[in-house]
Specification:
By secondary structure, this protein is mainly alpha-helical. About 60% of the residues lie in helices and about 0% in strands. It has a domain of about 25 residues. The protein is rod-shaped, with a radius of gyration of 35 Å.
Length: about 90
């Protein structure tokens, strides 16, 4: 009589395989977070925005200093604007 061997194929992963995969993902994630440093990236983007705003303000001040008598959004030189309350 011959012995018939049945090969049962498992459909899932073993606990060891899952733990190894989770460990590898954790190591890759920690390296990526340490390399990218999101807090530093946010800080740099905020600083760049501030520098851009300061550059725009500097341009506006320089334009105003070049032609101080011209009308601007702030009014005309020598004219006082008064606002009376509505009753």
């Amino acid at each position: 009589m011959q012995k018939i061997k049945k090969w049962v194929r498992s459909r899932g992963f073993t606990l060891v395989e899952l733990l190894v995969a989770i460990g590898i993902l954790a190591a890759i994630s920690s390296v990526a977070i340490l390399t990218l440093n999101p807090a530093e990236l946010f800080k740099q983007s905020r600083d760049a925005n501030r520098f851009s705003s300061l550059a725009s303000l500097k341009k506006a001040i320089n334009l105003f200093q070049l032609n101080p008598g011209a009308s601007s959004e702030m009014g005309t030189l020598g004219i006082v604007y008064v606002s009376l309350p509505d009753e």
